[in-house]
Specification:
The structure holds two protein chains of two kinds. Chain A is α/β, with parallel strands linked by helices. Helix content of chain A is 33%, strand content 18%. Chain A has a domain of 134 residues: Thiolase/Chalcone synthase (Peroxisomal Thiolase, Chain A, domain 1). Chain A has 13 helices and eleven strands. Chain B is of the alpha/beta class. Helices cover 34% and strands 21% of the residues of chain B. Chain B has eleven helices and twelve strands. Chain B has a ten-stranded mixed sheet, sandwiched between helices. A two-stranded antiparallel ribbon of chain B has the order 5-6. In chain B, a hairpin with a 2-residue loop joins strand 5 and strand 6. Chain B starts with a strand and ends with a strand. Classes of the chains: A alpha/beta, B alpha/beta. Chains A and B meet through helix 2, strand 3, helix 3, strand 8 and helix 9 of A and helix 3, strand 3, helix 4, strand 8 and helix 9 of B. Chain B: This is Lipid-transfer protein. Chain B: It comes from Streptomyces cyaneochromogenes. Chain B: One of its GO terms (molecular function) is acyltransferase activity, transferring groups other than amino-acyl groups.
Chain lengths: 388, 349
């Protein structure tokens, strides 16, 4: 028994902005879906099933919005699945869709993730009311800042590393027409002078709140053969979860992240990720998560990740470019952020990333995480099919 | 790719009007222990875990993350979640097993309707621009559907009352059911639907274990093999649908192979009596088919779990040798907008 290979043949996203007041939720998702279909030169009739993902329904105030979105996404008469795995959901959604193709249940699947955060206030949406959480936290930054401080203490990283990540990602975003933040006058000094929000995380080291959607068309070998543009091939994909809080949890480098990466590398035959993988789109909502995930994903030894960042290895022209698109630090429609990572990885191996294209990007990792650093989803895509 | 996959264990809570003394995790834990105990499996033996629930019932974001504590996800597990009824979590797990990446799966879902006014909460499911601002509640929308059926000559009020009475009479044999035995048919809630035509509002949870091939035979004396499962969605706007029919159910049943041979049992997720009429028609069920021997959603309707319970009840009848070929159905959305059909079979006796 062998799995059907999965190819990405269409990618579409909206221009991510703070508030898309010109479109409804249906209009927003349809825009991304339409662009993915156009990229694949397919029509709605070519799609067998739709798999949609987003983060908490409270962000838009619509319960299970996929019911209302069935028409806009051409899903009437078709199977439609709705995934929700917290911040990792964009990645998980793509993996659920990929499984439908891999299991030969469907030939061609449209997968899409979105968030229209201007409909509410995401920070307070993420701050659970008493009695579900202690009244200490305001938004995700309050939750993650202590873990960043733990990393700094553990690794001895100089406190400037976070600002280097933010400065890099915001400059990369200038080369990505879909990125939300286009700060043409960005300087390292400005990042370092921005207000402290959750010590040690400064304002310029946090993600924005965006309206946006991202869609992909996934298909089987036969579909890939008909594709008008080079496909990206899925070489490995996995999800891992662990509880939010428990004695012995390593919040800095969670075991679930390590296990998830190891599973992907095993499937893809990656022996040394630092050598075998050409670039990474990883989920970095707060700058310091770049060095933290470099270690968690096996690109650097424990305590050494910040040295790659400091040495410029993760720059667009570095040896291991990270977040070529500008990353979550430049664009964050939460439910879509994971899928944007997966889609950007696919764009790179298809050679269609435009100004932020990495030369000779043959194997690129897409990574997403969510909850209290507990849900992980990743895929590795390549320019050549898995059996090649 | 033809991989045989079966439901090998099923468990559910006693469904009750309120479970305010229990958290979701506390409600779920006994059910998880029950299915694991039936198979002798431990969490670490499970290849994939998938759940279904809704933040809108819990009233807080990421409500499913704490439920994960009940699973004991350590060492880390391969896991996913759908913001849908657990029947769709089972569908995702089924596709995962089909790929060969896992041989066993734990599927669970839960819903606590008691913390909020459910009829109001479900209005938040509707088109947020044109319909939700009017707050048309779930009973009112089902009443539109019931009236359309009566107008079309497909049913009448006494026939609906008979569906209610049969369901609650059957539920006397189901210790988990919330409404059992003689229940007064009551006054109109929204004409033509009376209290008895509506499901009870309640809290509950359910869990199922799936296994592939020989693994299933080792874990269960008579596995309920999933011969087919498919789901389809219809347009959202009620104004563009024929509410007396369910083309999505019929299509899902066709794709699941339900019409290839007759079934002996059908567990239908019909929260309202009138919806059983629609589903019987769409599924072409004749009087020889035993419909909702568990009492169905009219006896217990924990939102987000009631669909998975239909699959579990159908599978349990196959396990017990009370059915050889059963159909299970789950629904979501207003007036049966989205429907899933599974066909389960036991090995020949």
């Amino acid at each position: 028994m062998s799995k059907e290979p999965v190819a990405v043949v269409g990618i579409g996203q909206t221009k991510h902005v703070a508030a898309r007041r010109d479109v409804s939720i249906a209009g927003l998702v349809r825009e991304a879906a339409r662009r993915a279909l156009d990229d694949a030169e397919l029509t709605w009739a070519d799609i067998d099933a739709v798999v949609i993902g987003k983060a908490p329904d409270f962000f838009e105030g619509v319960m299970m919005p996929e019911l209302y979105l069935a028409d806009a996404l051409g899903a009437v008469g078709k199977p439609m699945l709705r995934v929700h795995t917290a911040g990792s959901v964009g990645g998980s959604t793509a993996l659920v869709a990929a499984n439908l193709v891999a299991a030969s249940v469907h030939g061609t699947v449209l997968t899409l993730a979105f968030e229209k955060q201007s409909e509410s206030n995401a920070m307070w949406g993420l701050s659970l009311p008493i009695p579900f959480q202690q009244p200490l936290l305001a938004g995700a930054g309050g939750f993650f800042a202590p873990h960043v401080r733990a990393y700094m203490r553990r690794s001895g990283a100089p406190d400037t590393v976070g600002s280097l990540v933010a400065y890099k990602d915001r400059r990369n975003a200038l080369k990505n027409p879909y990125a939300h933040l286009h700060e043409h006058d960005i300087t390292l000094e400005k990042v370092q002078a921005s207000p402290m929000l959750w010590d040690p995380i400064r304002y310029s080291e946090t993600c924005p709140s965006s309206d946006g959607a991202c869609a992909m068309v996934l298909t089987d070998r036969a579909g890939a053969a008909r594709a008008p543009r080079p496909p990206a091939w899925m070489l490995g994909g996995a999800m891992r979860s662990e509880p939010t809080l428990f004695a012995g949890k390593d919040a800095v480098s969670p075991q679930a992240g390590k296990d998830c990466a190891a599973d992907v590398y095993r499937q893809a035959g990656i022996a040394d990720p630092r050598r075998d993988i050409d670039a990474v789109e990883m989920y970095v909502p707060f700058s310091w998560y770049e060095p933290m995930w470099l270690e968690n994903l096996g690109f650097a030894a424990e305590g050494e990740g910040w040295k790659l960042t400091e040495a410029g290895v993760t720059e667009l022209d570095g040896d291991l470019p990270v977040n070529m698109s500008g990353g979550v630090l430049s664009t964050n429609p939460i439910g879509a952020s994971g899928m944007i990572r997966f889609a950007e990885a696919a764009l790179q191996v298809r050679g269609q990333a435009g100004e932020h294209q990495v030369e000779r990007a043959r194997k690129v990792l897409g990574h997403a995480y969510g909850g209290g650093s507990q849900f992980f989803s990743m895929w590795l895509v390549g320019s050549a099919p898995p059996d090649a | 790719m033809n991989r045989e996959i079966a439901v090998v264990a099923f468990a559910q809570t006693d469904h009750r009007r309120t479970s305010e003394e229990l958290s979701e995790v506390e409600m779920l834990m006994p059910v998880l222990h029950d299915v694991l105990g039936q198979t002798g499996l431990k969490t670490a033996d499970i290849g994939f875990t998938c759940s279904g629930s809704s933040d809108y019932l819990a009233g807080r974001a990421f409500s499913f993350t704490l439920a994960l504590d009940g699973v004991g996800a350590w060492p880390p597990i391969s896991e996913s979640h759908v913001e849908m009824d657990g029947a769709w979590a089972l569908y995702e797990a089924w596709t995962k097993l089909l790929t060969g990446d896992a041989d066993t799966a734990l599927v669970y879902s839960y819903g606590k309707s008691s913390p909020g006014p459910l009829r109001d909460v479900l209005t938040r499911q509707l088109d947020p621009y044109y319909v939700a601002p009017l707050w048309p509640d779930s009973v009112a929308l089902a009443a539109l559907q019931a009236q359309a059926l009566i107008d079309a000559g497909d049913t009448d009020e006494p026939a609906l009352a008979a569906v209610a009475a049969r369901s609650r009479a059957d539920a006397t044999a189901n210790s988990h059911a919330q409404l059992r035995g003689p229940v007064p048919h009551g006054e109109y809630v929204v004409r033509p639907l009376r209290t008895g035509d509506c499901p009870p509002i309640g809290d509950g949870a359910a869990a199922v274990i799936l296994a592939a091939g020989e693994r299933a035979r080792n874990l269960c004396a008579r596995p309920a093999w999933i011969r087919g499962v498919d789901h389809r969605i219809e347009a959202h706007s009620l104004g563009v649908r024929d509410l007396t029919d369910s083309p999505s159910t019929r299509l899902a049943a066709e794709k699941a192979g339900a019409f290839e041979r007759p079934v002996d049992t059908a567990e239908l997720h019909a929260p309202f009596t009138s919806q059983e009429v629609v589903l019987r028609k769409a599924l072409k069920l004749d009087d020889g088919v035993r419909v909702n021997p568990s009492g169905g959603a009219l006896a217990a309707n924990p939102v987000m779990a009631a669909g998975l319970i239909r699959i579990g009840e159908a599978a349990a009848r196959v396990h017990r040798g009370e059915s050889d070929r059963a159909l299970a159905h789950a629904t979501s959305g207003p007036c049966l907008q989205q429907n899933l059909v599974a066909v389960l079979e036991g090995d020949p006796r």
